[in-house]
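Hi V.,

You were right to ask for the full record rather than a summary. Here it is.
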Amino acid sequence: MAIKGTIGMFISPEGQISTVQTSHIDAVIKSPVTFGLTSEEIQKQYDKYSEPLGLEGKAREVLLRRIIKNGWIRLRRYPNRQWSITVNHYSDRNRELITDWATRITKGHLGVKEEDLYMPAVVTQLGGARPVIKTIEEMCHSK
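Predicted structure:
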């Protein structure tokens, strides 16, 4: 149950936590309606940039930014480095969702258990504001 490698997750605007089996964009492509998109919209973005569907390029960036602007939170754990968390804004609501997520993964949730309470968690905001850097333990107690 402890994390052995990289892991990706999403938090929905309603606070539902899900794991990503491969890449974040793959999860979006496989379940577009979940993220408020259609398969046609996704394909249109890939066509616009002349990229094959699923490539981690410009279309991916545009699509992930779009869903994050709509309230989704993207999380990725880089082994022995950090948790990378991307939000539209580090609002009170997003702080609440991240606190809930951090508390759950330190106890074990969806097969993910973060045992390194001092692992940095870096929250990046789409608007370009300065990143917020805390440990997982600090994230569990953020208000």
